[in-house]
TrEMBL record:
Family per record: Belongs to the DarT ADP-ribosyltransferase family.
Entry keywords, A to Z: DNA-binding, Glycosyltransferase, Nucleotidyltransferase, Toxin-antitoxin system, Transferase
Binding-site residues for NAD(+), renumbered to this chain: H56, V57, T58, G65, L73, R91
Any GO molecular function: glycosyltransferase activity
Protein name: DarT domain-containing protein
Keyword Transferase set for record: yes
Catalytic activity: a thymidine in DNA + NAD(+) = an N-(ADP-alpha-D-ribosyl)-thymidine in DNA + nicotinamide + H(+)
UniProt cross-references to PROSITE patterns, sorted A to Z: DART
Active site: residue positions: R91, E194
Domain called DarT: residue spans: 52-239
Thylakoid recorded as keyword: no
Amino acid sequence: MPDCIHGLEIPLCDSCFPKAVPEKPKVVRASSRTPRFAAVSTSKKSINTGAQRVYHVTHINNLEGILATGALLANAAPTVDLSTELTRELRSTARVCSDGRMVSEYIPFYLTPSATLWEQLREGAGDETRWSPAARAATTSDFVFLVSTVEALGEESVIADGDAAHSLTRFATGDSLTRMLERLHDSDDVQEAEALALAPFPIESVQLVGVSNDRMRDRVRKLTSVKVVVHPPWFVSAE
């Protein structure tokens, strides 16, 4: 499949290849089994929630360890720890839904490359209660995106409509997960939301690695066979 000017495959670049207006969904007979992530029909358009992209951001110096392990782990000791002890404590004591698991048992993903927390990192990680000195010392080009899809997060994935450690955040699993994704779609709230994958999250489920420049692309290509693309817009502040 040909690439766009950003190095992405056609289905992954909404700028070069905008989505066509979907055809009217076919009527499904009552006897048919509905897949977990069926396209959701709204007044505007149909949304394939399973194919929705999710983004995990990490420091380049953490990537080699992730690749060596073969997965993103919940209890990993990263080479560059971006979070403070307070952030880790809050996530280790916040419970997800009613399944007894804590937020810290999941791998966090953003639902958009313009997520609020990523914007904070791009602007210098000024919140000292959330971000570590290492996060403030990093430059934007030091980070990489590990891109996957909601479907690839697995059957036990969770969607949080805000900071997963916040007491007012609502969680969705199973059938309600699709409904929450529908509500978040094209809403400003999507910038605050998190997608959570129960750890470990295998590197095989990562579709591509997004980097900011050619130098970083060459560095990452030496580490992995996963497709690496240069996509500067993800690394530029929205301001």
